[in-house]
Amino acid sequence: MTNFKSLISGIGDLKNTKQYYDNWATDYESNLENWNYKIPLKIARILKKNVKYPPKNILDLACGTGLFGVELKKIYKNVNIFGSDISSKSIQLAKEKKIYKNLKISNFENKIIYKKKFEIISLVGAMTYCKKFDKLFSNVQFYLLNKGYFVFSHRIDLWEKQNFDIILSNLSKTFDLVYKSNPNNYLPKNKDFSNKIKVRLVLLQKR
Ligand SMILES: C[S@@+](CC[C@H](N)C(=O)[O-])C[C@H]1O[C@@H](n2cnc3c(N)ncnc32)[C@H](O)[C@@H]1O
Hints:
The chain is an alpha/beta fold. Helix content is 38%, strand content 25%.
C-alpha cells in the first residue's frame, strides 16, 4: 500500500524513492487522474506559446510512466522524445506507450552521454527530488542546444524553503528566465495537497 503522506513530507534517499515509484507505477496514472493532475498539460501549453520553433529532440527527465510525453506528442507530432527516470517499473510503462524514442534508467543528477543535443528539456513533477541543484542544472546546460529551453514545475512550499529565487538568479549567466507562473494547483483532489500545496511552472532559455 503506497503511503501518500510521504509525497509531501519526503520519501527519503534515492533508493527509497526508486522503490516507492516502482511500487506505485501500476496505479500511478489512475491515482493522478483522480487527483486531477493537470501539470503536464499546462506545461505543454507553456511550451506551445513560448517556444518559437518546432523542436526535433526533447529530453523528458524523470519521465515516470510518460504522462508528459503524451502531452508533448499532441503539440509536436514529429518530435523525438527521449526519457529517463530512476524507476525501472515506470520506464517499462512509458515504453509500452510507444511514444519515446529512447528510455534510460538514470538519476537526473548523473550525466548521460547522448549523441545529440536537445531543443527542450523537461522536469515535470520531480524537482522535489533534486538534492543537488548544481548537478541538475549543469547537466541540463550540457544537454541543451544554445537557445534551448528547460521547463519544470516546482512546489511553492519547497521553493520558499530552498530560496529558489536565489538559485534561479545565480543561474542568470547561463539561463534567461522566459516565464515564471503564479502558484498553480498541483493535486487539487488529493486531500493532503488540495489548495495547500501549489506549484510554480518555469521556462528558462539557455543563453
Ligand atoms: C511525480 S512523478 C512525475 C512523473 C512524470 N514526469 C509525470 O509528470 O507524471 C516523479 C518521478 O520522478 C522520478 N524521480 C525521482 N527522483 C529521481 C531522480 N533523482 N532521477 C530521476 N528520476 C527521479 C520518480 O521515479 C518518478 O517517476
